[in-house]
Amino acid sequence: MDDTPNDDLDADAFATAIENFNRFYIRLPVLEKLSFTTLSVLDTLASSGGPMRLTDLTKTEQVSQPGLTQLVTRLERDGLVERRPDPSDGRAVLVHITEAGRRIGRSRHDDRMRHLTPLIARLTTEERQAIANALPAMTRLAELGRGLS
Question: Which has the closest alpha carbon to 108: 57, 18, 35, 50?
Fold first, then answer.
């Protein structure tokens, strides 16, 4: 498999566009005011398909073990995650997202949709179609990126 980028996509322009969109997107007003790291941990747990070990979370979140342990303690205190023994290794702990933790993700998504929908309506038909056409490739790129961690 060839890892050389094709000439039909300017990776630098793509990265710049994504960075500009991300700066806008993560700053959309939302009702749930939580730190980026908190939201990232909740999102990782919600999208991982199951509970995760603290050591695995430190890798995905790029946070030190002590920092992540403190964060998980706060999230547990707030009812957003639960720690349970790992049935396959009694020394390890699995972190599970609670329904309250999932609600935060859904609430933030709903808040962002309230802001994005009128902006999308202001795009031309061609601009909306270009974004729609890019969605499968963006989804695939995200899947490939998850394989790197």
Answer: 35
Name the nearest CA neighbour of 145 among 47, 46, 39.
Answer: 47
Instruction: Give bridge partners of residue 89 from the DSSP assignment.
Output: 86
Residue with tokens 């993700």: 105
Determine how many CB atoms are found less than 10 A away from the CB of residue 26: 11
**Could you read off the pLDDT of 45-101 as tens digits, one per residue?**
998 888 999 988 998 888 899 999 999 999 999 999 999 998 888 888 899 999 999
Neighbours of 98 (CB within 10 A): 17
How many angstroms separate the CA atoms of 46 and 107, rounded? 13
Residues 130/118, Cβ–Cβ less than 8 Å: no
pTM > 0.85: no
Decide if 30 contacts 112 (C-beta within 8 A): yes
Query: What CA–CA distance (Å, rounded) separates 137 from 94?
Result: 33
